């Protein structure tokens, strides 16, 4: 089997390479704000969610972290005063992670630089139509690969 010209392997390899490169480009400015990349990712998902909160299980579904990994990150964010845990009214076993005012302020201060990085290294390199097509394509892939990732959001 000749894989040297297989477009499937090329597409997958380029996707992985771009994702890793983008992460490497945006990580330094995120970490300069005093939080880790994983902490930023969780805070971003929370501030973009209704009422600035998600169930812990939904956070796990929307990230590459395990449930125990989510617990550790939320624990650190809670100790920093950026997130609080709130009991779920409809499910005694459920817990929400909710961004505090301090967490929203930190994200408000961090997001302009993050958006500038996204524009510089990602969306600014593409046309509006290319961005729209990419978003549609990524949603198809995410729905197929992680159907539970849309829960809560």
Question: Could you please describe the fold and organization of this structure?
Answer:
By secondary structure, the protein is mostly helical. The chain has a single domain, classed as Arc Repressor Mutant, subunit A (Orthogonal Bundle), CATH 1.10.10. Helix content is 62%, strand content 8%. It has helices spanning 7-31, 37-47, 56-62, 67-79, 101-121, 128-145, and strands at residues 53-55, 83-87, 95-99. A hairpin with a 7-residue loop joins strand 2 and strand 3 (95-99). The mean pLDDT is 92.
Shape from CA axes? globular
Strand content: 5-15%
State the helical fraction. Answer: 55-70%
CATH topology: Arc Repressor Mutant, subunit A
Question: Which structural class fits the helix and strand makeup?
Answer: mainly alpha
State the end-to-end CA separation.
Answer: 43 Å
Oligomer: single chain
Name the CATH architecture.
Answer: Orthogonal Bundle
Count of alpha/pi helices: 6
Tell me the series of helices and strands, N- to C-terminal: HHEHHEEHH
Mean pLDDT rating: 92
What's this model, at a glance?
The chain is mainly alpha-helical and 153 residues long.
Please write out the topology.
Blueprint: H1 7-31, H2 37-47, E1 53-55, H3 56-62, H4 67-79, E2 83-87, E3 95-99, H5 101-121, H6 128-145
Antiparallel strand pairs: 1-3, 2-3
Helix pairs in contact: 1-5, 3-4
